[in-house]
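Table S2 (text version). Query chain:
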Amino acid sequence: MSFNQVKARYLERLLVDARRGAVDSDILDWLFKVNDARCLATTSSCSGRVAILYGDSLTDKAGSRILEVWHNPGECRRRICGIVPDGMYTWWSSLQPPIVHFLADSLEAAEEVLKCGDRAGFSKLGYRLHRTGYYHVEAGGGDKLHIILPAPCNILLSQCNMLQLYKERLEKFMECLLGVCR
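Corresponding structure-token output:
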């Protein structure tokens, strides 16, 4: 299957997922701009977020529940300090960095994506040969950071500030990607 055919399938899936609200709204325009590059197709993404979760324990991911999620750093700053956990569950705040997956039509394009990710400050970068015969590229930022609640407001706000930094890195990454394979 040609790269354009594979890319068309991923773009169709992106449109379907966007219509049903399964794509982070703050990264949607970014994804469409990147998909304008003839040699790249985005396959999945998360723009980064801060979430408040609760459950029986930190180790029970499947049993945990999400109370609040913020993709917008400003909204995070306005609301995160008002969360008051009850005593029934373990509560925590989780900073989750952005991660974007691409298909690149050549090794050269995959390596250019990695260079852009590195310049933008992403620390999790790599590629491998995909089952389609093209290159699957991953770019992500840092590790997750969990803070047990209750916690001082200034500590929680630091997660929102890190989220802002991640958003800035995504923008810098996109600017670089717009020059790949044009």
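Notes on Table S2: The chain has one domain: 3-177. The chain has a mean pLDDT of 93.
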